[in-house]
Amino acid sequence: QEGHNTSRGQEAFWRLSRIQFAYDTSERTYFKDAVSPGKHMASSHRLSALVTPAGKSYECQAQQTISLISSDHQKFVQLLLSEVRIQPFDITADFVFSEEHKCPVDQREQLEETLPLILGLILGLVIVITLCVYHIHHKLTANQVQIPRDRSQYKHMG
């Protein structure tokens, strides 16, 4: 695993640029009926994952998939990550993370949770304001004489 400090304009950030994953398919607990049992290696090519501003920890509850290619280029390996919290650098103490930077998927899910609440509150407020305006208008116009607009309602004079 390797992280790079690069910068976009003024802001520095960390990212995971390469992964090498060693696995043993002869381990029957995880690899049942493996076609070619033995030790294998898979790695990433041109990876840019877990991007985090410098000085912050990376946190993502959602499941992420990182695709790797085996060393013999015959197999594709998928690394599934979920509930990840990483502090790549600037560690001040053991098991103490700096302020977290949430992944885009978690940020989107948080917005999807709060947006209906906000819209519901706005709709409720609009309904209350409409009822108040109607009530005030009704009170102001209740004592005024209503003049019929069509002549059929007038009494015959005569």
UniProtKB/TrEMBL annotation:
Annotated Lysosome-associated membrane glycoprotein 2-like luminal domain residues: 14-91
Stored Pfam families: Lamp2-like_luminal
UniProt keyword annotations, A-Z: Cell membrane, Cell projection, Cytoplasmic vesicle, Endosome, Glycoprotein, Membrane, Signal, Synapse, Transmembrane, Transmembrane helix
Keyword Lipoprotein: no
Membrane association type: Single-pass type I membrane protein
Subcellular location: Cell projection, Dendrite; Cell projection, Growth cone membrane; Cytoplasmic vesicle, Secretory vesicle, Synaptic vesicle membrane; Early endosome membrane
Chief localisation class: other
Any single Gene Ontology cellular-component annotation: recycling endosome
Gene Ontology process terms (BP): establishment of protein localization to organelle
Transmembrane segments: 117-136
UniProt entry tagged with the keyword Glycoprotein: yes
Family stated for the protein in its record: Belongs to the LAMP family.
PANTHER family assigned to the protein according to its UniProt record, in alphabetical order: LYSOSOME-ASSOCIATED MEMBRANE GLYCOPROTEIN, LYSOSOME-ASSOCIATED MEMBRANE GLYCOPROTEIN 5
Record function comment: Plays a role in short-term synaptic plasticity in a subset of GABAergic neurons in the brain.
Name of the protein in question: Lysosome-associated membrane glycoprotein 5
Organism: Alectura lathami (Australian brush turkey)
Classification lineage: Eukaryota, Metazoa, Chordata, Craniata, Vertebrata
